[in-house]
Amino acid sequence: MPLFGNTFSPKKTPPRKSASLSSLHTLDRSTREVELGLEYGPPVMNIGGQSWKFEEGQWITESGGNASGRELQRLKKRNVQLEEENNLLKLKIEILLDMLTETTVEYHLKEKEVEDVKTQHRRKK
């Protein structure tokens, strides 16, 4: 028997109101532009004095940027060189790790052989 009355029974929640009372979501883009007076365009941002525009899934510098075509080619070439160097270094690290693993295994095997010889020598005495 509960101490303070009936068992717990929460109140029913009121029904939710509709998400949007506006009919703008049913209008097509051109009608919305006319109704709201908005002109939609690609996103544009300014970083470090250089203007970038997002078109067809990529950020593109707008004309008048600081980076020349020659400098972009140089940077792309340098990027390729660095990627190749990075891949070579990763390969060298992998080879060194394999060598280290092999040496460690050989060391443990030799250590085990020495321990086995010691125990056999002790048994003979």
Write up this protein.
The structure is a single chain. Strands 1-2-3 form a three-stranded antiparallel sheet, with no helix packed on it. It is mainly α and 125 residues long. It has two helices and three strands; from the N terminus they run αβββα.
Rg from alpha-carbon coordinates: 36 Å
Q: Uncertain spans, ≥5 residues at pLDDT below 50?
A: none
Total helices: the number is 2
Q: Helices and strands: which structural class?
A: mainly alpha
- Principal-axes geometry comes out as flat
Straight-line distance between termini: 83 Å
Mean residue pLDDT: 82
Strand order of the largest sheet: 1-2-3
Largest sheet: 3 strands, antiparallel
Fraction of helical residues: 40-55%
Number of strands: 3
Short précis:
By secondary structure, the chain is mostly helical.
Helix and strand arrangement:
Layout: H1 29-36, E1 44-47, E2 50-55, E3 58-61, H2 69-124
Antiparallel strand pairs: 1-2, 2-3
